[in-house]
Amino acid sequence: MLPSHIVRQLTQRAVNPVIYPCISRLATVASQPSVTGPWKPVGADRMHGLDENVWVEFVGLASEYKPVNLGQGFPDFAPPAHIVDALAKTVTGPNFMMHQYTRGFGHPRLMKALSKFYGKLLGREINPNTEVLSTIGAYHSLFCCIMGLVNEGDEVIIIEPYFDCYESMVRMAGGIPIFVPLMPRRKDVHSTSDFAIDPEELASKFSSRTKALMINNPNNPLGKVFHRSELEMVGNLCIKNGVICISDEVYEWQIYDRNEHIRMASLPGMWDHTITIGSAGKSFNITGWKLGWSIGPAELIHPLMAVQQNSIHSVPTLLQEAVAIGFETELERLGKPNSYFKELAALLEMKRMRMANMLLEVGLVPFIPEGGYFMMADTSKFQFDENDPEVGKGHRDYKLVRWLIKKKGIGAIPPSAFYSAKHKHLAENYIRLCFIKEDTTLDRAEKIFKEWHEEMELAKK
């Protein structure tokens, strides 16, 4: 029932006499005791167990302890000037329609820009109206894929490690995730190229119930770039079994050491089986804009459009217009030295090696990533008090990351969060760090690592 003072305020005669009877009746009804009886469970059954994830805890710890944040995957330096200028001009320009709804499945200028840009990369014409969908970030593209394509009881093969929402979304749709881990091919791992899929194990996971396969290339958190032969193996299995490939390629421009990003949809026969997911946030360092897209054949994109029109409906017009201008600019620069995508990769390659050297200095063993902007490191030789109440419970990597945040002021992410329950042990001796950070941020981290190294050296004496 409403508090008495609220009832008195609602029923004051000063209220407009036309609406007084309505308010008086509302107050009378609201003042009566509610019907008693047992509540039905509030949450939908499909959400059971999906209300907690790694980000809730470790973003919270980063906020509380203020470490040097090498955990979350976003840059702390400015985006390229041409994308920011494009947004500024769009916001202040004379076209007032930029402040209104645009086409629900994607702003026409952006759809045209993406179809031209990726059409050139894939060597085919892409229909901007039926084969491209603009979404609220790549995250929402993934959501549209799973909700639009997966039926209850369908199996979805997930190559792990994987971004943690893959599993949650599949379960939310009533699907059954089937996991195949990348495994190291040698004991002394130094590069992410040392990790591979077992072809026989992968082939054994396909069944009559398999609807889709999800792969992240370059891989987060590992940083592996899949080579052509690996992707052909995956693609051939999808074709053979009539399975859709959801290819998450948001880190497509962060490629190092002369590695090549092979787009799954470019392989023979795979256009018809592939939905490619991209991200403006990862491409232009504008993660806060939350703008992504899905590209694929019309029959695969259509169900995603149905999810979009019945959920968020449309994506902000201003942001789509600015990103369209960004892609128009980059299409002219594609493959040239002044391409932002080339400049970013060159910048990150230097930051990557700086991060590796910092880790080596304190006895951690980095896995040099071929792509992306995360670095995994083996911590198995490092000792800390796992029984300290401050490090909490759970897998070793969770405890170590809590220890790093609270004791050393370094933020990281435990990579076992990117593995299924059965395979979390594969990553419990690793940590994940992000190197797409300003030099001043890396300076602070380097200072902490050096002091940590000096402490360990003194402890040995």
What this model shows, in words?
- Strands 2-10-9-8-7-3-4 form a seven-stranded mixed beta sheet, sandwiched between helices. The protein has a three-stranded antiparallel beta sheet with strand order 11-12-14. The chain has a two-stranded parallel sheet with strand order 1-13.
- Helix 5 (108-122) runs parallel beside helix 12 (317-333).
- It is built from 15 helices and 14 strands.
- It starts with a helix and ends with a helix.
- The chain is α/β, with parallel strands linked by helices and 461 residues long.
- The chain has helices spanning 4-10, 20-31, 54-65, 81-92, 108-122, 137-149, 165-172, 199-205, 228-241, 280-284, 298-309, 317-333, 340-361, 396-408, 439-460; strands at residues 68-69, 132-135, 155-160, 176-181, 183-184, 195-196, 210-216, 244-248, 274-279, 292-295, 365-367, 374-378, 410-411, 430-434.
- It is globular and about 70 Å long.
Layout of strands and helices, then pairs:
Blueprint: H1 4-10, H2 20-31, H3 54-65, E1 68-69, H4 81-92, H5 108-122, E2 132-135, H6 137-149, E3 155-160, H7 165-172, E4 176-181, E5 183-184, E6 195-196, H8 199-205, E7 210-216, H9 228-241, E8 244-248, E9 274-279, H10 280-284, E10 292-295, H11 298-309, H12 317-333, H13 340-361, E11 365-367, E12 374-378, H14 396-408, E13 410-411, E14 430-434, H15 439-460
Parallel strand pairs: 1-13, 3-4, 3-7, 7-8, 8-9
Antiparallel strand pairs: 2-10, 5-6, 9-10, 11-12, 12-14
Outline:
The chain is of the alpha/beta class. It has helices at residues 4-10, 20-31, 54-65, 81-92, 108-122, 137-149, 165-172, 199-205, 228-241, 280-284, 298-309, 317-333, 340-361, 396-408, 439-460, and strands spanning 68-69, 132-135, 155-160, 176-181, 183-184, 195-196, 210-216, 244-248, 274-279, 292-295, 365-367, 374-378, 410-411, 430-434.
